[in-house]
Amino acid sequence: MRSANRLTFATRSTRIIWLMEELGEPYQLVPHTRDPSTFRSPPTLDRIHPLGKAPVIEDSTLVMAESGAIIEYVIATYGHGKLAPAQSGPAWARYIGWLHFAEGSAMMPLLVHLLGMLTGGLPDGLKGFITPDIEKTLKCIAAEILDNGYLTGSAFSGADIQMSYVLEVARMGKCWMPIHRWKNT
Ligand SMILES: N[C@@H](CCC(=O)N[C@@H](CS)C(=O)NCC(=O)O)C(=O)O
């Protein structure tokens, strides 16, 4: 693969770097530095993809954004059967469920919470709205890991890589706790 673009400072791009390392596939890492005052991506990323977000990959003539989709594409193209269950049956259904859940549902309340922390606090109404979602999300993840070891059963997969950054945001937002403690909540 030609490049996996990384926006410097703890970002979702770590998912793609981890994935490429797991697969042992060669890739070129291109760091982009956030604007220190706005914390947004620099114009160099807009020149690669109109969304101007990281991660974004370039593979031959393909330019692709959106981490979950990138993971699915990379595993289908370079996985050789690794890091995803076969494409049918309950393990695959769980796999795509977690892969989509990460950015489709789990990330939003956690990110709103984190942005609130970093910008002086959330209004009570918004806080009250997202807090139950955060609790349900984290309990659900913890239950799955405690029961099975990994999110899609006993095998490590791209879904674990995708969900790892959700836990990283929970950790940054001081909402995550050691896994065994969830049992008693
Ligand atoms: N849902 C997208 C989110 C991409 C995203 O928001 N990336 C952040 C870095 S973690 C970014 O580029 N932020 C800079 C900006 O929005 O200006 C994905 O999973 O790839």
Task: Describe this protein's structure.
The protein is an alpha+beta fold. Helices cover 52% and strands 10% of the residues. A hairpin with a 2-residue loop joins strand 3 (56-59) and strand 4. The model has no long low-confidence stretch (mean pLDDT 92). The protein binds glutathione. Residues 7, 11-12, 40-41, 53-55, 66-67, 103 line the site of glutathione.
Question: Secondary-structure blueprint of this entry?
Answer:
Blueprint: E1 3-8, H1 13-23, E2 29-33, H2 43-46, E3 56-59, E4 62-65, H3 67-78, H4 89-118, H5 124-148, H6 158-172
Parallel strand pairs: 1-2
Antiparallel strand pairs: 1-3, 3-4
The structure holds glutathione.
Q: What best-fitting shape do the alpha-carbon axes yield?
A: flat
Q: Show unreliable segments.
A: none
SSE class? alpha+beta
Fraction of residues in β-strands: 5-15%
Number of strands: 4
Radius of gyration: 17 Å
Q: Architecture of the largest domain, CATH level 2?
A: Up-down Bundle
What's the N-to-C terminus distance? 44 Å
Q: What spatial order of strands do you see in the largest sheet? A: 2-1-3-4
Order of helices and strands: EHEHEEHHHH
How many separate domains make up the residues?
A: 2
Mean pLDDT, to the nearest integer, reads: 92
Helix content: 40-55%
Named once each, the bound ligands are: glutathione
CATH topology of the largest domain: Glutathione S-transferase Yfyf (Class Pi), Chain A, domain 2
Give the count of helical stretches: 6
CATH class annotation of the largest domain: Mainly Alpha
**Main sheet characteristics:** 4 strands, mixed
